[in-house]
Amino acid sequence: xxxxxxxxxxxxxxxxQVCIVGLGYVGLPLAVEFAKKxxxxxxxxxxxxxxxxxxxxxxxxxxxxPKEVLELMKNNRFVPTTDDxxxxxxxxxxxxxxxxxxxxxxxxxxxxxxxxxTVKKNMRKGQLIILESTSYTTTTRNVTLPxxxxxxxxxxxxxxxxFSPERVNPGDKKFPVIKIPKAVGGMSEQSTELAxxxxxxxxxxxxxxxxxxxxxxxxLLENTFRLVNIxxxxxFAILCNKLGISIWExxxxxKTKPFGFMPFYPGPGIGGHCIPCDPxxxxxxxxxxxxKTKMIDLALEMNRYMPKYTVERVVELLASKKKPIEKAxxxxxxVTYKKDVKDLRESPxxxxxEHFKHKAAKVSFHxxxxxxxxxxxxxxxxxxxxxxxxxxxxxxxxxxxxxxxDYSFIQKHAxxxxxxxxxxxxxxxxxxxx
Length: 434
Ligand code: SAJ
Description:
This protein is 40% helix and 15% strand. By secondary structure, it is an alpha/beta fold. It has an eight-stranded mixed sheet, sandwiched between helices. The chain has a five-stranded parallel sheet with strand order 10-9-13-14-15, with helices on one face. The protein has a two-stranded antiparallel ribbon with strand order 11-12.
């Protein structure tokens, strides 16, 4: 039996040992799902603290129950480790490491390079290697493959290489990872088939595509689609404000169209490590190919303008109440990048606070998920929401609409509210909306 047939049979009879490289919000749920299905799973991570947290049952990934992890470890189905030699014992290796965007707005694939190098160091004949990290098109073929080939092993004969985009939506109970269709694109039909068989054990639906590039680009399309539509509705919000009509009512009306329309909502800017970043991978790659993208760049510019626009609206609102911004006391309500998600990455709230501070306003914040934030290198403690405290603020700026806030209490005690998230559906004399 050749390596392909051997791997197929090991995946089929579950004797294949799986190794997840990178135990974050993408890798750890995969490790748990494969182990629950009866595979032996190694979880390799370079961070000993992360391994320690798994061993002591400390929760650090929103969708993973530490008790379940401990159970799998007790039954010797899952072994988290910092020892990269476990890769040698593994038949299927899934790389799920971060691909941050450098401040100079180009993709940092250093984690992919180091993970691929670690795999190369430990790999042997007969392995399926899958890259899940979101990156620019051709990363699998032009970054990971050349590194793996340095092992002296031949791709699509000695080892099989595939790309499969991660689609995890942290905290989403409606779409847990196994319910989200999985795309797989291999260097050959054989690697695609092997990845298809492996993921089909845990995923409800697996979809084959003809190459890693198609799989890589489909992920970038998904998130660019959101970036462009959020930018579009943000421009509509600015237009509606100029027209003196409610963007929120306009959207509700457009939503009555039962086909050909998908609602997006304006906000104070976009955050997270997907939407503001993934499309930049594509525009960066396009430029390398001699094409300057237009829609992506414009959408990035539009979304990047929204924090400034939000501040401008509040400055105007306070000026209309004869309160110059430099004498204003502002409360930012909700600072994470998205409702009910404890994550500050790229959060527009942080930029908005900086803008207000640079205008000499006094700024405080409240977010039950975030006890303190660092702005311009200085720690800012959160402020409690009490009637006395609320009365102190010239304006409460609602940036992130967490579900755990009593908004009617805020509306009752706050002097003025700028609602950037359409929380207040009813009209109130002290509420102005984006
Ligand atoms: N946002 C708006 N208006 C909208 C939608 C989002 O202002 O109509 C803002 C959010 O407040 C946030 C940013 O955009 O600051 C990104 O929001 P998001 O809902 O796209 O959330 P993310 O970044 O968690 O995106 C993830 C992505 N999932 C993966 O990459 C696997 C994305 O593809 C999902 O569609 C999205 O979750 C989701 O639907 O929740």
